[in-house]
């Protein structure tokens, strides 16, 4: 029998908020790993559902599970808390609505053992629907080598699937962990900061089943996520150019119209507004909320109009006739100017 006082080789870190629906399947996929020498930190971030009861039940059946149950403080605080409590030198991220393939930890630990100059390794993922049904993947897979990661960052694309990530604890601690200002894209900001001090890579195997459904964070906060991603990339470009990162000490990102002042040059606000607005054209949630206002202002600033009449049609399909009419009027007005 393993010594309970011995340090584990791996810490698995999962934060949960009202996650009872998929939590059991996520936990079971971790407990069913071929690699077994881990502690499993599961932080209940102030849930009002049965999450706490589920965790206590699992704690009684497996001593590796170590629940942390407290009031709500948000994901960034929760992730940093688990990094601080982790006893193992390597941490595997996991979300409460996804499923690990059985050899995920084994494959990623082997990669980090064989590549001591790498601080982070992810993997390709397999999309599934709300009920676990297979989904057709669109878009490119995540980059494999560190050089490919850097090229992907320069293109403004995602580099590592957060719940599929495994990283060296001390490397992440050394860069200050997750930054509160980048809520809902805290992982992307972290990868970009880590890319300057260590190497990142992905294993070309689908070691995680990633659940996509309307209630997930990325669907509910798409505007804020796109905005933070654009700022994180700008901050990375500042660091690459040897300039000061103006976001380093921020607790919250400023409104978009303050970005010129933050970065100390004109044109940043307009650049970010265009990037975010064009990135939200297909998001039903964003077009029903503040993403639509960003789009209208982008057009009033003389921004790109490609495909905007198709967006008018999509708004009608989304059940937003008033916004469709407003966008059409904006297009007509800006065309006449």
UniProtKB/TrEMBL annotation:
It comes from the Bacteria. One of its GO terms (molecular function) is glycosyltransferase activity. SUPFAM superfamilies: Nucleotide-diphospho-sugar transferases. The keyword Transferase applies. Gene3D superfamilies: Spore Coat Polysaccharide Biosynthesis Protein SpsA, Chain A. Coiled coil: none annotated. Residues 11-175 form the Glycosyltransferase 2-like domain. Keywords: Glycosyltransferase, Transferase. Belongs to the glycosyltransferase 2 family. This is Glycosyltransferase 2-like domain-containing protein. It comes from Novosphingobium fluoreni.
